[in-house]
What does this fold into?
Amino acid sequence: MKVGVVGLGYWGPNLVRNFLSNKEIKKVYGCDQNLSRLQFINSRFPEVQLTDKWEEFLNGYDLDIIAIATPVATHYPLAKAALENGKHIWVEKPFTFKSEEAEELINIAERRNLKIFVDHTFIYTGAVRKIKEILDRGDLGDVMYYDSVRVNLGLFQNDVNVIWDLAAHDISILDYLIKKNVIEIAAHGIANYYNHENIAHINIYFEGNCFAHFHVNWTSPIKIRRVLIGGTKKMLVFDDLEYSEKIKIYDSGITINSKEGVYDALVQYRIGDMYSPRVDQTEALSLGVIEFINAIKENRQPLTNGYDGLKVVKILEAADFSIKNKGKLVQIK
Amino acid sequence: MKVGVVGLGYWGPNLVRNFLSNKEIKKVYGCDQNLSRLQFINSRFPEVQLTDKWEEFLNGYDLDIIAIATPVATHYPLAKAALENGKHIWVEKPFTFKSEEAEELINIAERRNLKIFVDHTFIYTGAVRKIKEILDRGDLGDVMYYDSVRVNLGLFQNDVNVIWDLAAHDISILDYLIKKNVIEIAAHGIANYYNHENIAHINIYFEGNCFAHFHVNWTSPIKIRRVLIGGTKKMLVFDDLEYSEKIKIYDSGITINSKEGVYDALVQYRIGDMYSPRVDQTEALSLGVIEFINAIKENRQPLTNGYDGLKVVKILEAADFSIKNKGKLVQIK
Amino acid sequence: MKVGVVGLGYWGPNLVRNFLSNKEIKKVYGCDQNLSRLQFINSRFPEVQLTDKWEEFLNGYDLDIIAIATPVATHYPLAKAALENGKHIWVEKPFTFKSEEAEELINIAERRNLKIFVDHTFIYTGAVRKIKEILDRGDLGDVMYYDSVRVNLGLFQNDVNVIWDLAAHDISILDYLIKKNVIEIAAHGIANYYNHENIAHINIYFEGNCFAHFHVNWTSPIKIRRVLIGGTKKMLVFDDLEYSEKIKIYDSGITINSKEGVYDALVQYRIGDMYSPRVDQTEALSLGVIEFINAIKENRQPLTNGYDGLKVVKILEAADFSIKNKGKLVQIK
Amino acid sequence: MKVGVVGLGYWGPNLVRNFLSNKEIKKVYGCDQNLSRLQFINSRFPEVQLTDKWEEFLNGYDLDIIAIATPVATHYPLAKAALENGKHIWVEKPFTFKSEEAEELINIAERRNLKIFVDHTFIYTGAVRKIKEILDRGDLGDVMYYDSVRVNLGLFQNDVNVIWDLAAHDISILDYLIKKNVIEIAAHGIANYYNHENIAHINIYFEGNCFAHFHVNWTSPIKIRRVLIGGTKKMLVFDDLEYSEKIKIYDSGITINSKEGVYDALVQYRIGDMYSPRVDQTEALSLGVIEFINAIKENRQPLTNGYDGLKVVKILEAADFSIKNKGKLVQIK
It folds into this structure.
């Protein structure tokens, strides 16, 4: 297969490197309007054929796959053009800026039997795959809450607020791990520097008395990447900044014997052992590339496909509407 | 002065110990309906005179001060009776369960020239006093956001949710540190075990584009006590679980040159040195006792008085209303 | 039983408190030459009968047990007088300053059927008891090395160096956990401030290719309390400053297929899961008091008896000799 | 200049990458006997000219510099041949396996006016350069002790023990930072797996009552990289695993008023503020390359030259002799 990567800024070179090292990919092409980016790629990966003309990608090189790593606002027109020219597409997160755009892209792909891969890259990390395994095995019992903090200093995006940038990761992870329906969303936050919010708190109400919260922040002096998952049986902590103990499972919990009015004697705290499973260190992006290629060869949906991308976009849209309306509650259908 | 402590459960013995060790206090009395608590106090502090009759406190012992460390719902009737019998009062946080109750107590105290001390104990810790000093000196510049996490496993309260229990601490700290007016509040969360919320996220909008968020949780497998304060000049992290480096000030920040449409070239991240000031280790409660006694002797308001207690209760009331209405925005006057 | 505590400085009050709260102890007496310490004890524990005359302890009060919490150099004369007056003795660590003294005390006690309890207090902590259980069960396989770091700022002792103060703890723990014979000892270090060493590194060679090292330091800017134990099957980390995860067991190791000259292909690293067992939080001193009382009642040796105290003193003596001779190797018989 | 890198295993590719990105280097050549390593380099750096014939390096390519990244035992013959063929040499640490070899290489280089660069790479890190600056400014006062821990699981070397591998780093850092003369050395440790020690404790006595200790260990379940430096004025902690706060300076210390016999009243502990300077993140290796090229152009010794390499080898030799003789004290001239 031949793959073309459009957008060679921050993330694009990682796509180039991973496509280059996959045996199924015969040739990698690169496209960017910025000549200095083309020079950079040429110096690091001389075997990549480069162009600053997007039209070459659509018609010139007989590409099988176009990977889109450009700013969010351009995902839709580039993806649409690629699909209409018969290319499978790989799109960076978030899939699109509007859910209608995502739906239209899905429809075109379905009609032409092309595959859409949305690069929810955390889904392919060893840690998230291990947590999925733990949850699916029922180790935690029923999930009661999910709490995520993703804060650090920088990198501001020009075109979107912190929700579209950072929360896109967390919502894709949540959607992968927690198989419950989202009912309502509310988001709060602040834009301290210019018109895009740099801090956001997103609250998600699920059916079945389950609740999630995300704190995303571009302006924190320290970096935190931590998820708490509370289950009826056990509780889990995922700290992505830990080197070797990213996941900890606590055999801890609360038992309440619900005789009215006498709670204090009947609340039992259980603090038990802790267990930290080994996490596979394979680079997530290389597994994403394998999954996409296999999906194309097997003519099936990849694990992170257009429908997953659409679900994430819907939640991002709702959160963005809510934060601009001081936490107005938004229903999700 | 003679002081009586009513309520000898979890916190009352700490009051007894600190009143005993203050030179201005001649005699300490204790009262509880639970005989086993009286026995416990007798074995540890044999010099305390004990009773299970609240009336003795009002009339029998000629007390100057009554300290109230009973469940929240009983604060108002006990405090009212004490004031009406001419006693200065010390009340555990939160001051009362309703703002009208707090207002009535303030009025009685004013009329009779009695002092109310509300035990917002964190205000007297070395760490919070140091942060106050840093903020007042203008080291951080203008405060843009305040973010607090206070989570652990247990202790459930019978009569109130996690907002009235844990967030009372954070709101008193916030009110002490940030001298800006609160405009609106919204709270989200969940009650996983019985009818009181065990997780709450409280969002506070201040005038002047400042925002605060509190995460309080009784059902976290791990304990976290961390505050981030973002200023226009510097940023501060307060981690109360650190042994010796509770406060860290980061000479870090973001500068934005606001020429329209060219954000990326103009966003500057500054990551500089960090500084951690030494924090005084004196027990907060002993300083609170000194402050209250001095306020009585000097016939002035103590640092944490009825008005401070009232402000905290108003915010707790608003947050409690909001969380029971899925984050409905509440105006604060 | 009636118990008298001599030496009411830093540690003595903890002994008083724990003897007071044990049901088998009818009355507690205290003795110190320093009147301000007697006043301190009187204000906190009014039920304790106090004296500044050591003779009263030997003859006056009909004591069953004398607990000695005075400086190391006085342990021997006080303990000898107590035993010769028919008292069971509790002695703080280190047992004595010379091994001959320890041997003499053991002999007197044996002749008169009195019990000696040496307060190797860490043996009674939940963490050390749990590690013992893990080692005895064979979870780690054969122990290959034991490495301990115990450093912080202060408290200098007047009469001894950092070996006699801090390493006494570590050697008692090591002796309890590792049932192998010590062959040789060498110690290095420095006295930066006065004639007692403030830093020491103690190296212990065991039979069976096992090695231990202790780093003790009174002059470290940060506090570290960490033990690594390397076994042929698994490895253990004990961090006493961790709040809830003091013990971590790593399913990690090295396998070497010993074909000469081709090591690189045959060294296998195994990095597996980690497991952290819950640790009992009961105060060690209260368990020590129970053990001593039971040993007296059952007429048996307590878990930490004179022989254990002697073994620790022998190693401390050897280390002290070695450090004063720039690491001269000392044989242990 | 034209540079040839011999040895393309673990570290060699980093040399290739850094030489490639330096503007003064016109062409990079690579040499390894292992064809799979040549293929690896070809796929990643197609512009590098490759050979499996060492003779080509000496005669064929007209090289200015030969960089040697092969196993320690081969450093001497390769370096000697390179110098005798008129090449400047870059040698990985440790410089040689015997001090006589190092001396001979220095002599050849001197005679032919060629430069020797020994890759003590930590000297070029932002952290070590910052510590040097702090020490040279006298912020810590006089250095009393230096304590370093460098432990983790793997990588075993085939040909040398843990001293030659890991301690080589620490000794080069120590020699750079502490400008005092080493007097004596003793090392202890154990070989648990085969005939090379996997754990070593190296004790170094300096003139002027200063002491250093290194703990290096290939078989620790956890990774630790921490240095404590105790000065008469302040103390420093360097934790290389910290992401952003690698260096912490504690305004803490001990003051002793030396009136004989009354130590306790006169020992003063001072625990003050802590300060963490920002550390430059530039890749050390790129700065090393620049330094070497400048030294050649300016006809001067580079910062880490043959004499520095020799000093480190002498200490390694002494430590290796000592560890094989159970800590026998070795004098250093």
The radius of gyration of chain D is 21 Å. Residues 260-265 of chain D have pLDDT under 50 and may be disordered. Chain D touches chain B through eleven residues (CB under 8 Å).
